[in-house]
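To the wet lab folks,

You asked to see what we're planning to order before we commit. Fair enough. Below is the target structure as tokens, and below that is the sequence we designed to fit it. If anything looks off to you, flag it before the synthesis order goes out.
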């Protein structure tokens, strides 16, 4: 279930993680699918944030869990 993958990924991102690390962690090999269906929704919801917001697609970009009470 997608919701379960979201929860695992959010927990995994307690430390900054690359897109590739995140994909490997939840077992998705297709980068486009991952970005469209997993990563972008989490970013739009404000659950994850990029570590380099001025370069959203930069090769050194990592993602981190946003600390708030709603993301548990």
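Sequence we intend to order:
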């Amino acid at each position: 279930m997608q919701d379960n993958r979201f929860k695992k990924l959010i927990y995994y991102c307690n430390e900054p993680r690359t897109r590739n690390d995140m994909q490997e962690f939840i077992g998705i090999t297709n980068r486009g699918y991952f970005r469209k269906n997993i990563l972008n929704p989490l970013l739009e919801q404000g659950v994850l944030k990029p570590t380099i917001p001025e370069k959203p697609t930069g090769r050194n970009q990592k993602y981190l869990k946003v600390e708030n009470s709603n993301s548990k």
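Structural context that might help your review: The beta strands are 48-50, 63-65. Residues 47 and 67 are 8 Å apart (CA to CA).

Thanks,
Computational group
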